[in-house]
Design a protein that fits this description.
This protein has 169 residues and is mostly helical. The protein has a single domain, classed as Ribonuclease H-like superfamily/Ribonuclease H (Nucleotidyltransferase, domain 5). It contains seven helices and four strands, in the order E-E-H-E-H-H-E-H-H-H-H. Strands 1-2 form a two-stranded antiparallel sheet. A hairpin with a 2-residue loop joins strand 1 and strand 2. The radius of gyration is 19 Å and the shape is globular. The C terminus is likely disordered.
Length: 169
């Protein structure tokens, strides 16, 4: 069952069930009807920084146009192949763990259970703060890895093959 959610260091945001397949148009409706009002309520008068991966839905023209029309939500750049770096992925993993022994009979039962789990996380203020702060160390790892790769690529092809072999073993 597709769902969408947001959070910040200050806690859980909204959690939305998506009917059918997520499309760029549905995503814009979520941004407009869910993210924008809830972010403005939590951070009144402030410009909110927002991250999302580079999935085709997120990079669709209609979505990019929405962000251009809403400068109060600042879309931060995101690296290609960086979907797993988004800390919301940790939340999805935790929810899946909490569902381990749950045997639903319908999509509605799954929704109710997952929504209940999300709501139970709301009071875990340190959980959300740690997830948000993990971005700093995650991004530093990416920067460090790029520096290492830049150094490796300065070698000629024969040395590069040897160095890559050393990384693999």
């Amino acid at each position: 069952m597709p769902v969408w959610a947001w959070f910040s260091a200050s806690g859980a945001g909204d959690f939305v069930r998506i009917e059918g397949k997520l499309t760029a148009v549905k995503y814009v409706r979520i941004l407009q009807d869910v993210l924008l009002p809830s972010a403005q309520a939590r951070f009144p008068g402030r410009r909110v920084k927002f991250i999302q991966d580079l999935s085709p839905i997120h990079t669709a023209r209609v979505v990019q146009a929405w962000f251009r029309q809403h400068p109060e939500i600042e879309l931060l750049p995101w690296p290609p192949k960086g979907a797993d770096m988004n800390p919301i992925e940790n939340v999805w993993g935790d929810i899946v763990k909490d569902l381990e022994y749950f045997r639903p009979n319908s999509a509605d039962e799954v929704w109710e259970k997952v929504l209940g789990i999300w709501d139970s996380y709301r009071g875990k203020h340190n959980y959300w703060r740690k997830l948000a702060l993990s971005m700093r160390s995650m991004l530093q790892l990416v920067i460090d890895a790029k520096r290492i790769l830049d150094k490796v690529l300065k070698y000629n092809v024969d040395n590069l093959s040897f160095i890559i072999f050393l990384f693999i073993t």
